């Protein structure tokens, strides 16, 4: 699914979201913003691996922004979500 976003005078941006069905039970009842962030991370994991995390979670083994949402060791076909970003 592609979602559009307009703002700051920029042209329309589109990004891929994973299906909401892949979210574990605990995330299905999170706010819209949190669910969207996890869905974005699942669909764009390879991109988020290049973005450093700024929340100080490196001591928890996180290597990038991607690992704040999806555990580094989980294979693409069987994602394991990290609950850290739920709030």
Description:
It is a single chain. The chain has 2 helices and 2 strands. The protein is an alpha+beta fold and 87 residues long. It has a two-stranded antiparallel ribbon with strand order 1-2. The model has no long low-confidence stretch (mean pLDDT 82). It has one domain.
C-alpha geometry: globular
The percent range for strand residues is 5-15%
Low-confidence runs:
none
In total, the number of strands is: 2
Distance between the termini: 25 Å
Q: How are strands sequenced across the largest beta sheet?
A: 1-2
The helix count comes to 2
Q: Tell me about the largest β-sheet.
A: 2 strands, antiparallel
Structural class: alpha+beta
> For the CA atoms, what is the radius of gyration?
13 Å
Provide the domain count.
1
Q: How much helical structure, as a percent, in the residues?
A: 10-25%
Mean pLDDT: 82
Set out the fold topology.
Layout: E1 2-5, E2 13-16, H1 32-43, H2 45-48
Antiparallel strand pairs: 1-2
Short structural summary:
The protein has helices spanning 32-43, 45-48; strands at residues 2-5, 13-16. It is α+β, with helices and mostly antiparallel strands and 87 residues long.
What descriptors fit this protein?
alpha+beta; two-stranded antiparallel ribbon; 18% helix; 2 helices; 87 residues
